[in-house]
Amino acid sequence: MALSQLDIQLKTLPTSPGIYQYYDKGEKLLYVGKAKNLKKRVLSYFNKTIDNGRIRTMVKKIHEVRHIVVATETDALLLENNLIKKYQPRYNVLLKDDKSYPWICIKNERFPRVFPTRRLIKDGSEYYGPYTSMKTVKTLLDLIKSLYKLRTCNYDLSKQKIDAGKYKVCLEYHLGNCEGACEGKQTEKEYHTHIEHIRQIVRGDFKTSLQKFKDQMQKHAAAMEFEEAQRIKEKLDILENYQSKSTVVNPNITNVDVFSIISDEGYGYVNFLQLAHGAIIRSHTLELKKRLDETDKELLEIGIIEIQQRFDSQSKEIYVPFDVEVGDALKVTVPKLGDKKRILELSERNAKYYRMERFKQTKIVDPDRHTNRIMAQMKADLRLSKEPRHIECFDNSNIQGSNPVAACVVFKNGKPSKKDYRKFNIKTVEGPDDFASMEEVVFRRYRRLLEEDEPLPQLIIVDGGKGQLSSGLKALETLGLRGKIAIVGIAKRLEEIYYPGDSIPLYLDKKSESLKIIQQLRNEAHRFGITFHRNKRSNAALGTELEVISGIGEKTIVTLLKHYRSVSKVKTASKKSLTEVVGAAKAAIIYNHYHTKE
């Protein structure tokens, strides 16, 4: 039965933190949720019986799942809050009110107050956060209060009013919590020095403060004041886990559109993040097919125009990874570091995840297209003249020269073809000589293919560096195949790809699919060769003692070992027991062999 579009989406969801959005057939948003693991969370709606009637009704209406990938679970929590407040989905109950997560405000005043708030007012004040826990906010403010004496009153402390003696110090001054700025007992410069230290604390730089807390905790513990020590320890835990920056909510970034692009040989994927008042309110990825080998710059320019028209964006500024030409109406910013760079990296992350999901979906729906893309990519990455539809990989196995063997594994269209695997006993090489062994098996393999008129591979991979590659090349030269089949070597340490006659190796991107297929080939050849080698060693070790008995063949040895499990038990078996297993004649031979010896 053909899979629905929803089934395919569910199979290819990422396992990263993020938010998921459910849409019905009319593209109406039904629900927004957050997840530490998107795939696990979304599948939980479809893999179990749901008791809640509201959720059960919603699941029946789901036609499409969209998601935004973020860096942390905290960011997912904040992004969920943004989207629910913006779109008010029908099936969300929580977070629909106008209550937002708390911030720490450093008020824009001559002697700034520092306090928690849930409202952002554009009056030049500084806001840090948002925080997903009010407990974290209180801990930070307690830390600030214990280190610095700040005012809590809301008086207008202008120079004229202070000089005129309009205010008198309050109880907070007498308790030692304030230094009396209202009576001019503290200078503006001194107060602002404290505010600068507080800025560092709320940005997450509080190593000095943490050390002070640790010292206090140790003193309380030494004085047997364990309850007080525990209270400080709890504060320390909160501060050490404190995350000062959120990527998805930033009051310093106003209304902007963020665009990034990831591309391969056939398609470009343009991701769009829309920010309003410092919060992400939309994400969309556009897939663009390359028709004339367009550059990333050309594709991104096409994507920006199309996306802004589709979503009727009114933003006057865009963030992009490189300069683009989109007319004079838009301000183009290429972030290099800081908050703007982080939001661009988040967009790139979503483009990459979208591309990976499209690959997985294509693999399910159209495996031929997936194979063609992989083969074209390998041809380009490895600088081959033909697509490597048929690849063979060789590996040697021996321990100090004992039982030397080799393995050849075959991949066709990027997948293992196990019926074509071959194993070799090394016949012409004495001792542990990997180079000579490689030359022997490559020669034997392709001499046989030529004799039997079987198709030759487009690519041969030998497990090893320049030495093994030279040996394989020598065998091909002897057979007259040099230049007709591409051959490369892969060295394990840094995954270098060596070519004949080139001393400088090729380094493929660690995340490239071409390298992953080569590694899979190498690992499969190693596994196949090691298994064959172990079996050979095992058979040699077990069979040696029984093989010396005249009149006992291989089948009888196998029957004995299957029944008795070890040679020592065969030795001590009675004549009657042996007769029941292998018959009277052979039982007599085996019994007499061991007992005559004794």
TrEMBL record:
Compartments, as annotated in UniProt: Cytoplasm
SUPFAM superfamilies: C-terminal UvrC-binding domain of UvrB, GIY-YIG endonuclease, RuvA domain 2-like
Entry keyword set: Cytoplasm, DNA damage, DNA excision, DNA repair, Excision nuclease, SOS response
Every UvrC family homology region profile domain range: 266-476
Signal peptide residue numbers: none
Domain GIY-YIG: 15-93
Keyword DNA repair recorded: yes
PANTHER family (alphabetical): UVRABC SYSTEM PROTEIN C, UVRC/OXIDOREDUCTASE
Subunit note: Interacts with UvrB in an incision complex.
Protein function: The UvrABC repair system catalyzes the recognition and processing of DNA lesions. UvrC both incises the 5' and 3' sides of the lesion. The N-terminal half is responsible for the 3' incision and the C-terminal half is responsible for the 5' incision.
Family membership noted in the UniProt record: Belongs to the UvrC family.
Protein name: UvrABC system protein C
Source organism of the structure: Dokdonia ponticola
